[in-house]
């Protein structure tokens, strides 16, 4: 390295102190292609940066402090419109903040009233003809996406609770089917009753299949509130089954009785149901 170049470059330790980053962070950003060093000594492997790279390094540090993912930072540094990229990040943070506020409200209720013990009733359900859409979630956090994919394939919105009733007297609507154990690939399905005289009549929409939801004896609990705050209701339902020695057969059913387009989240009514096996 000639003397002019040497004077223009900063060793990684000095550059890290200048930019208030650690050497480990700089190495990681280099591996990701966000901030490669200006020169790497081929003999020693030492990394050097130009002082002019400090603004970019400080920008990375600032955006990380604001919980901007590294992938989004890469988009910004590559010249993508920062308003679009950071607007997307802001929307995600706002959604997470809203979810955490609802979680906090649920925790406050648990603190005030103790662990939930919602009433559970045993009901007899007939078998029902449905149109069924299926998708696999890769993790519990991916269940929302899988559910949305299924609903889109069905092409049927959650009906108005005042609409036509189904075969058993419940409002016509969607039924979500979710695994009890949240490990490994998670099969998710959404069904719409074909017996309810819905907008698509008795034929399943393209990309879905006609199926039969088994009938039988079910334990049922009523959840009132946002869909993503159903944990206390699940707690009551599964605890009731365990205490009575009932093995849970098949997926958990969520029967949506309210139309989220016209119902505030705090008043959404959902029936959580599990098919009961004989006590062990």
TrEMBL record:
In this protein, which residues make up the domain named HTH merR-type? 9-79
Q: Which CDD domains match?
A: HTH_BmrR
UniProt cross-references to SUPFAM superfamilies, sorted A to Z: Probable bacterial effector-binding domain, Putative DNA-binding domain
Q: Which domain of life is it from?
A: Bacteria
**What are the UniProt keywords, alphabetically?**
DNA-binding
Tell me the GO molecular function terms. DNA binding; DNA-binding transcription factor activity
Under the heading InterPro entries, the entry gives: DNA-bd_dom_put_sf, GyrI-like, MerR-type_HTH_dom, MerR_fam, Reg_factor_effector_dom_sf
Cross-referenced PANTHER family: MERR FAMILY REGULATORY PROTEIN, REDOX-CYCLING DRUG-SENSING TRANSCRIPTIONAL ACTIVATOR SOXR
The protein in question is named: MerR family transcriptional regulator
Q: Which organism is it from?
A: Planomonospora sphaerica
């Amino acid at each position: 390295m000639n003397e002019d170049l040497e004077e223009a470059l900063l060793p990684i330790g000095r550059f890290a102190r200048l930019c208030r980053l650690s050497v480990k962070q700089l190495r990681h950003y280099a591996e990701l292609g966000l901030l490669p060093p200006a020169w790497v000594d081929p003999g020693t492997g030492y990394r050097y940066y130009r002082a002019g790279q400090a603004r970019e390094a400080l920008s990375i540090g600032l955006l990380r402090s604001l919980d901007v993912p590294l992938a989004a930072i890469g988009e910004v540094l590559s010249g993508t419109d920062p308003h679009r990229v950071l607007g997307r990040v802001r929307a995600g943070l706002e959604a997470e903040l809203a979810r955490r506020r609802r979680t906090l409200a649920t925790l406050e209720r648990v603190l005030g009233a103790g662990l939930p013990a919602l009433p559970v009733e045993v009901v007899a359900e007939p078998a029902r003809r449905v149109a069924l859409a299926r998708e696999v979630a890769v993790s519990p956090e991916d269940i929302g996406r899988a559910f949305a994919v299924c609903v889109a394939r069905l092409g049927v919105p959650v009906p108005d609770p005042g609409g036509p009733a189904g075969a058993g007297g419940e409002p016509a609507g969607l039924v979500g089917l979710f695994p009890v154990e949240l490990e490994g690939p998670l099969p998710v399905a959404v069904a719409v009753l074909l017996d309810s005289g819905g907008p698509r009549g008795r034929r399943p929409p393209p990309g879905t299949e006609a199926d039969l939801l088994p009938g039988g004896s079910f334990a049922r609990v009523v959840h009132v509130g946002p869909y993503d705050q159903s944990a206390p209701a699940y707690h009551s339902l599964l605890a009731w089954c365990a205490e009575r020695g009932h093995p849970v057969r098949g997926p958990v059913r969520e029967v949506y009785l309210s139309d989220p387009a016209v119902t505030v989240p705090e008043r959404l009514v959902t029936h959580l149901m599990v098919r009961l096996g004989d006590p062990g």
